[in-house]
Write a structure and sequence with these properties.
1 helix, 5 strands
Length: about 80
């Protein structure tokens, strides 16, 4: 599960089921190590990534998100809506 190569502005988003801690594939299904599923969604910038996250949170309040930058560092962790205080 390597973070994809990104340009300066691009970001990658990894999704996790907040109930179980399982990594989700790009189709929001549990990722299995022996599968060829993709787990990172790549966006042209953080604005597009956050727009996607906002939309998905309207459908599922139990998914957590980690946004990675072009240097593979974590830019932001966004907890599941269900557990925000």
């Amino acid at each position: 599960m390597e973070i994809p190569k990104l340009t300066n502005e691009q970001v990658a988003v990894l999704k996790v089921d907040g109930n179980t801690g399982h990594v989700l594939n790009i189709n929001n299904k549990v990722f299995w190590k022996d599968s060829n599923d993709e787990v990172y969604l790549v966006f042209e910038d953080i604005i597009a990534a956050k727009r996607y996250i906002d939309e998905l949170q309207q459908v599922s309040n139990e998914i957590e998100f980690t946004i990675y930058g072009s240097n593979s560092a974590v830019i932001e962790f966004i907890p599941a809506v269900k557990w925000r205080s």
